[in-house]
């Protein structure tokens, strides 16, 4: 064995065998990689992309279009090396071209641009039915619509609001603009404790059934001022003498020039009060004509009375 290892021819033969094995191994790996690359580059792939925005091409100055979906589905098929970048980048456009079409109902085909012509492209839907109408504009007065009015304190009252600007221009198809029943600035008054000033309120447009209409509004917001006051009610007031005058003094009359007073409070409380009970005036120490200030009692549930006091004239017989 030692003699073989020392033999030059033995070493040469072994080296030749090892070189042959190495050559075979390298060539087999290269062939496998080449076959795999060839297969990948030429394999077919199909991908579907949903929620692709639909572009509408039309004369937006003259017409309004309805019946169009906002998004469509696009399916591409072809070599994987071409399909993959299209799906990843989505650098293409799906559109309908309505230029040249007038008012009416039209069936139009979806089109696409920016997709390689090496791919087969399928759009879903392929065609759509659209309605083209002339665009019209009309001015409407803006009214105020209150949100959460039921949460407003029952002792508070919303006075007549002001709106700036008072008019809004509504633009849309003639069939939709004809349905406009009201244009309102929406103001939340649920937490109001005092007058609302310079509120920027969004403008909404409604039909007779109270459905909001999809139209263009100019301006989209207005400035609203809402005066807020305390709920009040005027009721008659009377006075009456209380006690007896001193001996020898005759009181001819006890009167007041104030005929009514103003009560402030919740609506349900004020609703059942139609007058104040007669206010007693003490005459037990009266000896001559005089003027007294008498405090007005505040009825239960009422928050305040105005004025708080009455001037009472007491006339004594000479």
Strand content: over 45%
Derived structural class:
alpha+beta
- Overall geometric form: elongated
CATH class value of the largest domain: Mainly Beta
Helix content: 10-25%
What name is given to the CATH topology of the largest domain? RNA Polymerase Alpha Subunit, Chain A, domain 2
CATH superfamily of the largest domain: YbbR-like domain
Rg is 46 Å
Order of helices and strands: HHEEEHEEEEEEEEHEEEEEEEEEHEEEE
How far apart the termini lie comes to 165 Å
Residue-averaged pLDDT: 88
- Provide the domain count: 4
For the report, how would you describe the main beta sheet? Answer: 9 strands, mixed
Summed up, the helix count is 5
What's the total count of β strands?
Answer: 24
CATH architecture identity of the largest domain: Beta Complex
Would you identify the regions where 5 or more consecutive residues have pLDDT less than 50? 28-39
Protein name: YbbR family protein
InterPro entries: c-di-AMP_regulator, YbbR
Transmembrane segments: 7-26
Organism: Halobacillus halophilus (strain ATCC 35676 / DSM 2266 / JCM 20832 / KCTC 3685 / LMG 17431 / NBRC 102448 / NCIMB 2269)
Topology (SSEs and partners):
Elements: H1 2-5, H2 8-42, E1 44-57, E2 63-66, E3 71-79, H3 80-89, E4 93-97, E5 104-109, E6 111-113, E7 120-124, E8 127-147, E9 156-158, E10 162-164, E11 167-173, H4 174-177, E12 182-188, E13 196-206, E14 216-218, E15 221-226, E16 228-230, E17 232-236, E18 239-242, E19 251-256, E20 260-264, H5 267-271, E21 279-282, E22 290-295, E23 304-306, E24 309-316
């Amino acid at each position: 064995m030692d003699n073989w290892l020392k033999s030059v021819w033995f070493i040469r033969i072994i080296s030749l065998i090892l070189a042959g094995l190495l050559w075979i191994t390298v060539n087999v790996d290269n062939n496998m990689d080449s076959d795999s690359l060839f297969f990948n580059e030429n394999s077919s792939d199909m991908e579907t992309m949903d929620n692709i925005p639909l572009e509408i091409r039309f004369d937006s100055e003259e017409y309004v279009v309805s019946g169009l979906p906002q998004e469509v589905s696009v399916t591409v098929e072809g070599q994987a090396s071409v399909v993959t970048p299209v799906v990843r980048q989505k650098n293409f456009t799906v559109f309908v071209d309505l230029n040249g079409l007038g008012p009416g109902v039209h069936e139009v085909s979806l089109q696409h641009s920016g997709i390689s012509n090496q791919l087969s492209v399928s759009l879903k839907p392929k065609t759509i039915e659209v309605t083209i109408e002339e665009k019209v504009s009309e001015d409407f007065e803006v009214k105020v619509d209150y949100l959460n009015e039921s949460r407003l304190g029952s002792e508070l009252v919303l006075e007549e609001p002001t709106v700036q600007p008072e008019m809004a221009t509504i633009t849309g198809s003639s069939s939709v603009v004809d349905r406009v029943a009201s244009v309102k600035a929406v103001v939340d008054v649920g937490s109001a404790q005092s007058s609302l000033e310079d509120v920027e309120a969004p403008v909404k447009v409604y039909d007779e059934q109270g459905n909001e209409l999809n139209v263009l509004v100019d301006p989209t917001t207005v400035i609203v001022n809402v005066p807020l006051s305390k709920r009040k009610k005027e009721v008659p007031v009377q006075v009456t003498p209380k006690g007896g005058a001193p001996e020898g003094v005759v009181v001819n009359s006890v009167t007041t020039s104030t005929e009514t007073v103003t009560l402030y409070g919740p609506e349900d409380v004020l609703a059942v009060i139609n007058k104040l009970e007669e206010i007693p005036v003490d005459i037990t120490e009266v000896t001559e004509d005089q003027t007294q200030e008498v405090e007005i009692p505040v009825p239960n549930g009422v928050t305040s009375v105005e004025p708080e006091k009455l001037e009472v004239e007491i006339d004594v017989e000479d």
